[in-house]
Write a structure and sequence with these properties.
By secondary structure, the chain is of the alpha+beta class. Helix content is about 30%, strand content about 30%. The chain has six helices and 18 strands. Strands 1-2-7-8-11-16-17-18 form an eight-stranded antiparallel β-sheet. It has a three-stranded antiparallel β-sheet with strand order 3-6-5, covered by helices on one side. It has a three-stranded mixed β-sheet with strand order 4-12-13, with no helix packed on it. A hairpin with a 2-residue loop joins strand 1 and strand 2 (about 10-15).
Length: about 280
C-alpha cells in the first residue's frame, strides 16, 4: 500500500494507492498531487490569483475553465434539488462569521468585532457556455463541493494505477478495492465505490464576540446553523454528491442515502439502510 500526504485546498490530503512500488506508481501519485494543486488554483477562495477569486472580484468570467463551470453547475443543481439548503452563494456569510482566511489562520477568539447584519444568500448565478455571471454583490464559496469534486477527479486519475482512496479533509472518494473508513470511535464503514463526506460543527469552530461560530451556514438565515446535529456523514455515488447530501441532512433536509448522524445530545443514529 502506497501513501502520499500533503496540504492543498486549505486542508490535509491523503492518497492511498494499492499498487506495487515503482516508477509507474510514483508517477501516478505525482499526478494526483499536481491535480489537487491545479484545482486549488481554479476553486480556492483563499488564493487571490485563483479563478474563483477573479470571478468573485469581477462578477463575471467570459471564458471560465471547464472545471469551474462544472463545479458551479453542480452547485446550482444542488441548490435547486435541496430547496436552497446547499447554496454556493454563502461566501459573504462565511466571511461575516469570521472564516475569512484559511482555517489555520482564523483567530480562536475575536473579542470586539463589530456586529453586522446577516449576509444575504441565494443570489442569482448564470452559466451560459463558458461564461459565468454573478448577481451584483454575490460571491461564491465552492469549498466543500470543490474538495469533493477534486477527490473524485483525482481518484479517477489514480484508478488506472490500482485501487485507491483519496481523502480531501474528510471528503473521500474510492475506486476499486475495499476500504474501511472510521466514522466515529465505534463505527467503521466499508467503502468499495463512490464517496463519503461529513458535515459537522465540532471541528471548524471559533469564538467571536464570546459566541461560538462554525463554518456551516444556514442559507435561510445567513448565520452559522443553530440547533443542528453535531455531525452527519453520508455515503453517495461520488464525494461531491456526498458533500451536498451531508450538508442537506445537517440542515434538516431529507436524504435517502446511508448516513451516520451524531445528534446534539451525542447519540449516534444510523439511517438510510445502515444497521
Amino acid at each position: 500500500m502506497l501513501r502520499r500526504a500533503f496540504t492543498a485546498m486549505g486542508t490535509d490530503i491523503e492518497v492511498l494507492l494499492d499498487a506495487d512500488p515503482g516508477e509507474r506508481a510514483e508517477r501516478a501519485l505525482d499526478r494526483a498531487e499536481a491535480e489537487f494543486e491545479r484545482l486549488e488554483q481554479v476553486m480556492s477562495r483563499f488564493r487571490d490569483d485563483s479563478e474563483l477569486s477573479r470571478l468573485n472580484r469581477e462578477g463575471s468570467i467570459a471564458e471560465a475553465s471547464p472545471d469551474l463551470v462544472r463545479v458551479v453547475e453542480l452547485s446550482l443543481e444542488a441548490r435547486d434539488a435541496t430547496e436552497g439548503r446547499f447554496d454556493p452563494t454563502v461566501h459573504d456569510a462565511v466571511v461575516a462569521a469570521g472564516y475569512d482566511r484559511t482555517f489555520d489562520a482564523v483567530a480562536p477568539a475575536t473579542i470586539a468585532d463589530p456586529v453586522e447584519a446577516p449576509a444575504r444568500c441565494g443570489g442569482a448565478v448564470h452559466v451560459t457556455g463558458p461564461t459565468i455571471e454573478l448577481e451584483p454583490g454575490i460571491r461564491l464559496d465552492l469549498g466543500g463541493i470543490g474538495k469533493g469534486y477534486a477527490a473524485d477527479r483525482v481518484a479517477e486519475l489514480l484508478a488506472v494505477a490500482g485501487p485507491c482512496l483519496v481523502n480531501a479533509g474528510g471528503d473521500i472518494a474510492v475506486r476499486g478495492g475495499s476500504w474501511p473508513v472510521g466514522v466515529t470511535d465505534e463505527i467503521t464503514l466499508e467503502l468499495t465505490r463512490g464517496g463519503l463526506a461529513t458535515s459537522g460543527r465540532d471541528r471548524r469552530r471559533w469564538l467571536r464576540n464570546g459566541e461560538e461560530q462554525h463554518h456551516l451556514i444556514d442559507p435561510a438565515t445567513g448565520l452559522p446553523a443553530a440547533g443542528t446535529p453535531i455531525r452527519v456523514t453520508v455515503v453517495a455515488d461520488s464525494a461531491a454528491a456526498a458533500e451536498v447530501a451531508a450538508k442537506t441532512a445537517f440542515l434538516g433536509g431529507t436524504v435517502d442515502l446511508p448516513q451516520v448522524v451524531v445528534t446534539a445530545e451525542g447519540t449516534t443514529v444510523l439511517a438510510g439502510g445502515l444497521a
